[in-house]
Design goal:
This protein is of the alpha/beta class and 302 residues long. It has helices at residues 12-29, 43-52, 116-126, 133-146, 157-170, 174-185, 193-198, 228-242, 289-301; strands spanning 2-8, 33-38, 58-59, 67-71, 87-93, 107-110, 202-206, 209-218, 246-253, 258-264, 280-283. It has nine helices and eleven strands. The chain is globular.
């Protein structure tokens, strides 16, 4: 049995690509495979799953002693417990290559596209495997989410080609689907401050130290104006309790493409010169953590 697992604090692509990759492994390779998740699904992902008529994956407790496919990451800091005792046999990802190493050769599909599900769509086509409506909705939902309805600089022609084909298979109106998904994506009503910080938090190694960078996407900064102080306190708490050199949160307004980068920690002084106010950097034309936020932070942190 192959366990297909997305990253910690799973977003829609992490969940959807795990489900779709498990089906692809069964159909194209004849393997037994199961999708697992490293956390509960967000309201956005729940919406996509409902539209597809698919249940959320079971929560992964440990992959020790198992054969594993990683989807939507290659940084081991984002891997499940027991990964050092597992055999990584495959990867589907659209991020930079992380610190994964393996004893045996593996199958790896890492493309510079906007979404892991875009890669999976093309793998289905390459293997001449039929795409069910359920998988079409899952992949389309993940692509729309990750590319912010095709507005993100991470979006490529391969993403658009995949989305167009998947829209036909799913039999849905793409514009209406995008509008619905963006409304759900930016709705943070009722969420606690710690859940907002955790929503898509990723841990990155820098030398022998670690930083964490999260992102929430909103329709207006009015949604979080009364939460900034509490979010800053939560970021500071993460550094104190977990030893991170920097804890940051990209608060991204998808309507204006402006991001407020909140930050705390020992390395905050490295960002101070760029801050418009205490521990906040305003970043114009910034929607993507992968292609804009994180590369900029790496440069500034040195």
């Amino acid at each position: 049995m192959i366990q297909v697992v997305g990253h910690t604090n799973p977003d829609s692509d992490s969940i959807c690509s795990a489900l779709v990759a498990a089906d692809w492994l069964k159909a194209a390779r004849g393997y037994e495979a199961v999708a697992l998740a490293q956390g509960e699904v967000t309201s956005e992902t729940a919406f996509i799953l409902e539209q597809a008529g698919v249940q959320a994956p079971a929560i992964c407790e440990s992959v020790a002693g198992q054969k594993v496919w990683l989807v939507d990451y290659t940084d081991l800091t984002q891997a499940p417990r027991g990964i050092e005792e597992a055999e990584i046999v495959g990867i589907v990802d659209h991020h930079r290559l992380g610190d994964v190493t393996t004893t045996n050769p593996l199958e790896a599909w890492i493309w510079p596209v906007g979404c892991s599900c875009t890669i999976l769509y093309h793998l289905f086509k390459m293997e001449n495997v039929e795409i069910t409506r359920a998988n079409a909705v899952l992949m389309l939902g993940a692509i729309v989410s990750d590319t912010v309805a095709f507005r993100s600089p991470t979006c490529t022609e391969k993403d658009r080609v995949a989305a167009e084909a998947l829209t036909d298979i799913a039999g849905i109106n793409l514009d209406a689907f995008c509008d619905q998904l963006m409304q759900v994506k930016t709705n943070i009503e009722g969420l606690s401050v710690d859940s907002l910080v955790d929503r898509d938090l990723k841990k990155y190694p820098m030398g022998e130290d670690f930083v964490v960078v999260g992102q929430i996407e909103i329709a207006s900064f009015d949604q979080v104006d009364d939460k900034v102080e509490a979010m800053q306190a939560e970021l500071k708490k993460r550094c104190t309790e977990e030893g991170f050199k920097l804890s940051a949160l990209m608060v991204t307004n998808i309507a204006t493409s402006v991001t407020k980068l909140l930050f705390q920690g020992e390395w905050s002084e490295k960002l101070a010169a760029h801050a418009s106010e205490a521990n906040i950097v305003m970043m114009e034309n910034t929607l993507s953590r992968k292609k804009q936020g994180w590369p900029w932070l790496q440069t500034v942190l040195g």
